[in-house]
Write the structure tokens for this entry.
Amino acid sequence: MIFFSMGNPAYRRAPPWLGLCCILVVYAICVARLKPANFFGLSEDDSIYFSSAQALAEGHGYILPSVPGTPPGTKYPVLYPWILSWIWRWNHSFPDNLSSALALNVVFGFGFLSAAFLFFRKIARFKDVESLVLTALCGLDPLTLFYSANLMTEIPFAALALGAVVLTGESLRKDHGTAWAMFSGVLTGLSTLIRVLGLPLAVGLFLAILLRGSWRKSIGFAACVAPFLGFFVWHSIAVAPAAAPITASSCSPVWNMTWMYYTSYLDFWRADVIQDHLIWHTLKDNFVRLILQPGKYFFDPRFVGLRTLPFVLPGILSAGAIRGYYRQVRAEGWGPVPYALTFYCMAIVLWDYPEFERFLMPFLPLMAAGLWIEGRYLMKRIGLALRDGSVNAERPAAIFLSAAVVVIFSSISWFFWRGAISIRRASELRSAMLQEKREAYSWLRDNSSTDSRVIAYDDASLFLYSGRQAMQPVVFAPAGIMRAELLNADLRCIVEGARVLRASYWLISDDDFYREWEPASSRGRTREGEIEKVLPEVFRSANHHVRIYALGCARQFDEPACRRVSSTLFPSADGNP
């Protein structure tokens, strides 16, 4: 009975953690309701991670087994595939083992939300109730739920990175020893082996400890990060990206870009941004997206189908989050956050895939905190203006701001509700299409030789289901968004990969190119439609949404029987590539 006394310190500490446990349970239920297995293969990254994990579990090393030639795994750091490899060791039956892998992702989500709760309490210094409300806001955010339902590195990386930030903040306290900095170094090092973006995070946290802590703590942090960085550097030097299969044609640049997409993001970035002279365009566009992203975490027009003035409300919310963050930094400072955020943002604005909702996931709690601080400040000012009868001039502005706050709160609530519905509908649609794709995968497994190569947009998923190596028909260079001639070249050379790899089949689905921008998405499907008219069909799914075509003429375009289709497969003056 003594333990349950209200005066007992342990009892007073228990309610916030019980509240956090309730949030974690609700979060897990919400993710489960999305039926995460339906999303497998949606991003392609997840299926590449899982296929590499299979290779690691079978003792083949870190390779890309789905890609023809099985090049070494140099596209991503090794840690996440290695973690997933233990799922394969425990259960080698695919796709039955997907549920275990997705459950592991939810466990990382628990870590992320626990780190968020500590961030609100320890760094933002909110009260327990505020911390719980904001943790729930982060956990139920549609983007958090979506990435938790996908077998990708967003949530694992966010858990490690945010945990490192929280531990670094604790290490800056004078009453805490070097151990806190060392624990932070371990988490930071692990994050570098999950995603390359852990490197700028490590630089920012090291400077925070060096400048605001002590040199002893900074040495302890660096000593714990160093082995992970050493392994990263060693692997980068020792394992070089595989060279692309040689092709001598006008389509060679397009084929080389597609190959580099699988084997080296750095080489792909150089070719796309530096060689195409788009560095300033990339910086300008990415900076605008970076500024808008904080608000899009709380109102993303894509999830609610809003097409009119889609950036107005995200812009307002971003301004509020940034203003609240700045207000707190000026008043009390946020420990290591400014250092980590600065170096992290310097890295992501250079990237040519501007998916900032993915990149900034570790800092979602920071954005929620900034918006909360600014909202709390505005409500205080509005309350004072409405209560103070002597300041009549401020009353109309206070009434207007009150109405604006109600509209913004209602919009955020609408986004959370509609966002969850949109994700569930996407899961249902994906499930229906997946059933037809699995029919096609079964046909390939039963009717093609084991060394057959396939062209398919969901290539790594095809490998896991059928055991046949595959590649996408083409990887559109992001520079094509700004330079139409690059997109035209990609479309013209869409068959080049099939010719170089001597692929036997081309799997075409009605949802191909769904990850691309417009007009690349629609034009890619149109180009596939042209190719479908001249290739022999060997399989069609029950509802006709997935087809497989034989690719003999794509491999032997100079044969007399294939000359009729060469002008469609290789649209040039002489019909040859």
Notes: The longest strand covers residues 505-509. The CA atoms of residues 1 and 8 lie 10 Å apart.
